[in-house]
Amino acid sequence: MTLPAPNFLSGTPLDRLGHRRTDEAWLSGCRQGGRFLPVWRHRNLVLGAEPLTPAALPWEELAAKVRVDEVILLGEKDGALWFAAGIDTSAEPGLEGEFAEIRAIGHRLSAEDAAVLAYARGMVIWHQRHRYCGRCGCPTVITEAGHARTCSGCEAKHFPRVDPAIIVLVADEDRCLLGRQPSWPPGRYSTIAGFVEPGESLEDAVAREVDEETGVAVTAVEYHSSQPWPFPSSLMLGFIARPTSDNIDLKDGELEDAVWATREDIIAGRVLLPPRDSIAYRLVQQWFDASGEHELEREVRSGTWIPRPES
Predict the structure, then answer these.
(1) 284-290 contacts: CB < 8 A, separation 24 or more?
(2) Is 155 a residue whose pLDDT tops 60?
(3) Which of 4, 185, 186, 225 is the most interior residue, by most CB within 10 Å?
(4) Mean pLDDT across 56-78
(5) Largest CA distance in the chain
């Protein structure tokens, strides 16, 4: 079986150094010579025009200009240590470069740089949202180089979590099932997606979400690939499935519309696909190209990333 190429935001080039996170003697001196990636209001600091590059600052420069609330060891690359630096101020920090939302600039970054910035962003947001213990309510403090928080009261240890979400292309040989949300640009359609619920397998989540959103029953659920989606903390788990029914019924009202789309519909632009960098596009592309008659990249152009307000 040929594995698909890594999805966008996947494949960070960093060695995460999990075995060094509790080495206090080593950690005490590792900031010197490190590269720090500032994150402010869920935005990453970037430099340049085309392509953009992460603004990786030395600790001395960063600490002299802003107050850093969170310092998280991300890992090592080419002999250098990389850190995320969470900045929590009301006014934009006076640092060279631009603080930008990665969903708006993703297509202007290299795949590796985007993966590192997404990693930094996700870690900073987790710390900002877990400053108090969910068990007793006392303040928590950063431990394990930023990969845990420990309660100052009950001493419970909290670790970063991701929220698993399935995303699935339901298709047979000639058509695929696509839906659209009201907030999307006119004509934009995508695959079906939703969060996995407690006590639910991934396969069960696929069947439930497709049924709830479109009324279509599915079988032959097969895993395709995954994509980290730190907006703020999701992991998209991609699947393909075959339909066993045809009638569309928008049961839960989450979608504005859902359609069965053919390759001809896509070529003609009757449905506009999600951005190329999304796992949804990759799922559609695999089905589209499987006919052997057309290649999606030669037939259509997808839109740009859609910045969405933070929840």
Answers:
(1) 284/169, 284/176, 284/178, 284/191, 286/4, 286/169, 286/224, 286/240, 287/169, 287/171, 287/176, 287/240, 288/263
(2) yes
(3) 225
(4) 95
(5) 64
